[in-house]
Amino acid sequence: MAFKLLYASSFLLLLLPIPTIAQTYPNISFGSSLSAQEDSSPWASPSGEFAFGFRKLSNDGFILAIWFDKIPEKTIVWSANGNNLAPKGSTVELNTFGQLVLNYASGEQTLISHDQSKDTGVAYAAMLDTGNFVLADQDSNNLWESFDQPTDTILPTQTLSIGSVLFAPYTATNYSKGRFQLTLESNGSVVLYTTNFPLDSTNFPYKRIEPITSNSVDADSAFQVIFNQSGSIYVTDSKGNIRTIVSDTTVSVQDFYHRATFDYDGVFRHYTYPKNNGSSVWSTLLFIPKNICWELKEETGGGACGFNSICKQDPKGPTTCECPKNYMFIDPNDERKGCKQNFLPQSCEEASPETDLFGFQAMLNTDWPNGDYEHFQPVTEEWCKQICLSDCFCAIAIYDGSRSDCWKKGIPLSNGRMDLSVGWTSLVKIRLGNSTRRPLAIPDAKTQRSSNLTLIGSVLMLIVTYLVVAIITYVVVSRSYSRKAKVSDLYPVINLKCFTYLELKLATSGFKEVLGRGAFATVYKGVLASDKGKLVAVKRLDTVVRENDWEFKAEVSAIGGTNHRNLVKLQGFCNEGQHRILVYEFMSNGSLAGFLFGGESRPSWYRRRDIALGTARGLSYLHGECSSQIIHCDIKPQNILLDDSFTARIADFGVAKLLKTDQTRTTTRFRGTKGYVAPEWYKSLPVTVKADVYSYGVLLLEIIFCRKNFEADAEDEDQMILADWAYNCYKQQKLHLLLQNDDDAIDDFKTVEKYVMISFWCIQEDPSMRPTMKIVTQMLEGIVEVSVPQNPSSLYAI
């Protein structure tokens, strides 16, 4: 009854006609074009709320798109080339035939609009305030429009007809077609499907929004999904009858931007964003399905998060994917590719079942529906564990204590989910301790007694073989070290790929595009053809001298053995002949220096807070949580990189690797960058991890105030050194002088003041007065109280 009342109460509002607003749009004439450049101006709508043009994405390609242009996020609502990004220098043109054409810099050409070659009737193009880009005739009739070619988003005044498809993007920053699609079918149902990725064809329907059945359905009824100008979304038939209300809202389109987007996690969401509020974020009015982790159970396929993974519902945003204990993501940059075991699987050899080397990690409220291959009842939990241990194919045992049920599951696991409604326990089989090697099969006692002579002979043969192998190994290794060009020169590092020089030369187009330069190396952008076009940063040592050999070896050894979300990940290396090259994951949002100092306006205070905390956590890991202590020694904005989500990632271990990282201090010669180095470097005193704490203190001030630590052209001499100026303002309770035009920070002034106090503790002249990075992190998190700092007194040498 309540359902029918909802339709009745909404019916009149939904059928209100969409008013026609007389506006004069700036026409785009034949021959007009835009270029794929960082500073290229787009074609804007009259109000400036929407723009059409090129946007540079994280992987350094350009997408031809339409976006909201008056909000900081510049949210994309339509794109033309998500599957084939355009390189720099490409253009889009309205040609003399009235066609919209994308001209790639490589010479390739793609027709964006209609395919007629002559007499199209097109007179001009225009970007409308509705978010619709149109090609129109002299009478302003739309002959082609972006609204008819939707990608993942629909906007108010837009409609979807039968057969129209929305494709979810591949990831939040990759606009190629992803793993899900939404379509309006001939019976009026809106259906969400998984796809046979990477094909476009549908695989499994996981959510249907069915039409109401109170009205008869014409066999040839022309259903439409309508997103009306009041912000409501509904389905009508050919007679204009409302068949389904998808989203009914009272949020005004006059005061809020609206969009309905089929997100990369397979959820259809209706978003709103307050106009004239640059510090806000998109809010979710509705999401379908309510819990994709629960509703998506593919018959064939990995489910919402890929094979062997676990889906966790987040009502406030995209679902998150996790791996079970002792599993790891196949691709950390794409969690929906699933997880793999981070240990050697159990042996299936009868002589060595390895049952003593494996145990279980219990996970509550976790399940992988489907895929059971054996079921036992009634049994105890211990019996269930033992039957799984004795089966090398069993990866997980599910035990339901309420019914004494036991199920066995094997790899790969599908449809993983974590939900409070799951009442049983998942027992994940893991290898115990650090055991990664299988023991040799040991003969039973009877066999030993019958083959003593054979065993003695075998032992003698093994001894002789060992001596021969030892001599050969000594000769080979000696020659290898003398040549200094073998990969075996490197310290052993797990899970790193060894590239050939030719591979990396091809990946960088002959080391063409420079991302940055340092004292000992140049960093180039690369594309790995062997890894589906994955973008990487390729660091090539400039000279081949002994010091650089140490630089290279130690950087591989140092960062290759680390694993933390706030460190840049090393993907591999090349140690071939005279070539010393490191391959890192590509950081799409550049360096913290560009983020803080490269724009006209200050970046978000709340994002700066996250970056400050992330950097502190990364340093805390290096100092005390990784396998061997690492002193970075060159913490500065240029060495803090930002990934797709602006997470801080510490980079450039080129200085740290020269230190003896198994010690707590070093007496090595001066390293680092002036302005960030601790006083002990200048005094030739032993250097500890507290040197990094000092550098972090300087960096923290730069993050807080978006100002470089030293500015020679400052208006006032007292303002040249940021730490001096900040401390004077702090003592005089005038920190607001450093926060001009930073409303977000001023609104959070107590946190700003706390962060400033933490920075002063970090830059104390006496290293013993500085906190450890672990304490700094706890101060930032609010776990440890921050006391009033002493005067740092010794500020930096420039």
From TrEMBL:
Top-rank EC class of the record's enzyme: transferase
Major place of residence: membrane
Subcellular location: Membrane
Enzyme nomenclature, EC number: 2.7.11.1
Membrane topology: Single-pass type I membrane protein
GO cellular component terms attached to this protein's record: membrane
Classification via CDD domains: B_lectin, PAN_AP_plant
Signal peptide (residue range): 1-22
Chain ranges passing through the membrane: 455-477
Record Pfam families: B_lectin (PF01453), Pkinase (PF00069)
Protein keywords: ATP-binding, Disulfide bond, EGF-like domain, Glycoprotein, Kinase, Lectin, Membrane, Nucleotide-binding, Receptor, Serine/threonine-protein kinase, Signal, Transferase, Transmembrane, Transmembrane helix
Annotated residues for binding of ATP: 539
Record's protein name: Receptor-like serine/threonine-protein kinase
Protein source organism: Rubus argutus (Southern blackberry)
